[in-house]
């Protein structure tokens, strides 16, 4: 993980947002550099995951986690926690906006950028802050269109 974006939703609106680069203390793969534009120089003065975790853990523990292709992001989180020997929860509740979209909008493609185009949401794709904000906006659109969150809550085991 080289960046993290968090958007907090409460009472039907985005109430807080957080972004930070993360120094992964490891080699950067060329594919990820080309995808995100983030390289070793970008994160050289960024906090490491354990330092960042101290600040974001309270918000990560405060509700249901939501991400687009959530199982991937939760897998990255699990790997970071495991690699640094950080204990957290045995499991978390989450929703995946990609899976939700497949059920709610079955005649569409469900890539983040395509859903943003459909809803008219601005997106700087593969940038953690923009992706997080867009995911939150998509979730809010689903709710405004009548989606029942309880139908989509899943459990991820750590």
Account of the protein in words:
The protein has 158 residues and is an alpha+beta fold. The protein has a single domain (3-157), classed as Nucleotidyltransferase, domain 5 (2-Layer Sandwich). The protein has 7 helices and 5 strands; from the N terminus they run ββαααβαβαααβ. The chain has helices spanning 30-36, 40-43, 49-60, 70-83, 97-104, 112-119, 128-144; strands at 3-10, 13-21, 65-67, 91-96, 154-157. Strands 3-4-5 form a 3-stranded mixed sheet. Strands 1-2 form a two-stranded antiparallel sheet. Strand 3 (65-67), helix 4 and strand 4 form a beta-alpha-beta unit. Helix 6 (112-119) packs across helix 7 (128-144). The protein is globular.
Question: What descriptive keywords fit this protein?
Answer:
158 residues; alpha+beta; Nucleotidyltransferase, domain 5; three-stranded mixed sheet; two-stranded antiparallel ribbon; 7 helices; 44% helix
Mean pLDDT: 93
Q: Please, what is the CATH homologous superfamily?
A: Ribonuclease H-like superfamily/Ribonuclease H
Class by SSE composition: alpha+beta
CATH topology: Nucleotidyltransferase, domain 5
